[in-house]
Amino acid sequence: MTPQRISIELTNQCSKHCHFCYNHSHHLGETRWQADELVDFIKDCAKSGTKAVSFGGGEPLEYPNLFEVLSELQGVLFRSITSNGLHLHGDLLEKLVIANPDKVHLSIHYPEQKEEVKRVINQVKLLDSLGIRSGINLLVPQSKLQVATQTSQMILEAGINRERIVYLPMRKMDTPTPQEMATVAGGKPFQSMTCLMQCGISSRFCSIAWDKTVAWCSYTVSRRSLPSLTAVSLDAILQNLPLVFCG
């Protein structure tokens, strides 16, 4: 059965170029997705049971056909994007509002950088005012637990409630424990990765990279190339696909 939720990396281009990026995105990145084939593929998956698609990268706002794809998929399934927010102003912001995604999550990659934290908080509030549902992904490295805790509190004090924050543990390096994550979240229920407690396959989710390789999650090195852009092909490639722990 086709996964209910699919994450698609539109590109590995990202001008932010974080050293810990799981797909090594950089400012000279590329994409292998054409807009029309991407739309047709997602529509085919929707017919087979996919309920939601999330677009990431790289930086999805650096994918030239993002707004065309979002518009073509309106009403087909739930559409969300995850962005660093650096380009979310001017013409791109206007186009995003017109494309009207169902949700936008902005990432705080460096909780110790107050300017980034303030920018993302202000952008989330701006999206709210423009009628775009939004939230924050807060990356938590083990070496920065105290400042991540302070950042979490700052977000909450800005009026962005816990239901709109996703606490993401740093993967592959500097990884906090689930208990440390709970401390950052203030000891109250919080949203995070499904693999926070234990690495494992979820048949309801898969990740497809910018180069059209498929995996059970964005972090694992265990991938297979998608031979054709159909739901049947996706279902077939997921059969017996292993999951290699990213830690």
UniProtKB/TrEMBL annotation:
Keywords: Iron, Iron-sulfur, Metal-binding, S-adenosyl-L-methionine
Name of the protein this chain belongs to: Molybdenum cofactor biosynthesis protein A
Gene Ontology molecular-function annotations: catalytic activity; iron-sulfur cluster binding; metal ion binding
Coiled coil: none
Pfam families, per the entry: Radical_SAM
Lineage: Bacteria, Bacillati, Cyanobacteriota, Cyanophyceae, Oscillatoriophycideae
InterPro entries linked: Aldolase_TIM, Radical_SAM_PqqE_MftC-like, rSAM, rSAM_sf
Gene that this polypeptide is encoded by: moaA
PROSITE patterns per the UniProt record, alphabetical: RADICAL_SAM
